[in-house]
Predict the 3D structure of the following.
Amino acid sequence: MASMDGRSPITLRPHDVCVAIQLVLAPDFHFRELGRDVGLSLGESHNSVRRLEIARLYLPHRRLVNQAALRDLLLVGVPYVWTGQLASETRGAPTARAGPILASSFPHDEAIVWPSPDGPSRGAALAPMCKAAPSYPVQNPELYGWLTIVDALRVGRARERRMAHEFLSARLGSAAAE
């Protein structure tokens, strides 16, 4: 992807994944609300949507996310491009197998958390894709659930990745035509 001025490539940032998912969850958006929901400034929410357009993940003429392309990015790209590394135990918001969607399937496994002093759980620390993610359980529970699934792809074992794959494939099954 080339920049608009042709000087340097424009590449996706980790928080662009959060924006893309939020656009699936709330396709009728205003940039101010999008920024608030994802924890970005108004300007950065504009920039993020522009990067998604350039990557053909957002179709501005239809005001829709290209769900097939997003599914491919999440299932194939994210685990390799934005790999996660678990760090020492800390307090935080549960994610991956400990998140709200997968926790009942892995009740006895060690928790994985996004570090936050206000988090309800202790577990191995994982840096979130979005800086504001530790606030999502309260501020944006639906996005929170989806990002915990993305984290299962980033750091999960085979069964966790399979369940995450099934979740995303079921919800991103209908693609927006380009």
About this structure: The first strand starts at residue 58 and ends at 59. Residues 14-81 form a domain with the Arc Repressor Mutant, subunit A fold (CATH 1.10.10). The mean pLDDT is 93. Strands lie at 58-59, 64-65, 87-95, 112-115, 121-125.
